Sequence to fold (293 residues):
Amino acid sequence: MTDTSHPEVDAHTGTATTGHEWDGIKELNTPLPRWWLWTFYATIVFAIGYGVAYPAWPLLTGSTEGALGWHSRSAVVADLDGLKAQRSGMMDKIAKASLADIEKTPDLLSFSRAAGSATFAINCAPCHGAGGQGSKGYPNLNADRWLWGGTLAEIQKTITHGARWDADADTRVSQMPAFGRDGIMKPEEIVQTAAFVRTLAGLTPAAGADPSKGGVLFAANCAVCHGADGKGNKDLGAPNLTTKVWLYGSDTKDIINRIENGGGGIMPAWGQKLDAPTIKALTVFVHTLGGGQ
Fold:
């Protein structure tokens, strides 16, 4: 057993050993560098000071407030207020200008597109995609195919009041019947109708299906909303079926599923969350994404 009360001193370095030895190799009790020790002590002092100055220590129902009274939430609010102050001049101009005048005025158009892009990224991109490209069930805003119309006024109304948003009395309202689930059409009739719908866009119908029979069924059940020619009705939010831009997919099974179960997507009424100038900026941004009407 090693006697640690009188440690051995290494002859080569002059440093005492710890008494530990492995395979003839003895461990030196080398002291830490002074700069490292002082740095370590400084971090301890800093941590204590930080814990006193800022909210840091958890309590049963909250945390310590900190001697300086600083809060991250207050800092964020202050930054947002500063940003609003910087934008206030341009936002006031947007509030007073018509949508058409905004697009005709280069500085207002540039600002609206920038502000609208930021608003879109926060509120709209989760459904429509970062670039407005959409996804299954969510319209592609770049395609210039507008369910509810693509004029500035129509886009503004859609953004403001949403679609099928029960909390807004002026929301866009439409509903595709569940032709299969509600027993309006038989399964074989749905298959024939799906075959006809594919031909409207120049697509090949499923093998064994008869598009001519589907055309008769389409005229009796679907034309009232989509039109006899299948080109849709923006007043009802009924899409144009003659294009190859499909909201729920163009495969036969996708079309059959849509006819069977009907329904329609829900869009929030952003007028309940965003102020009027922000709605205008977002309208202009969306309008320019798809070329507008």
Notes: The mean pLDDT is 91. The radius of gyration is 34 Å.
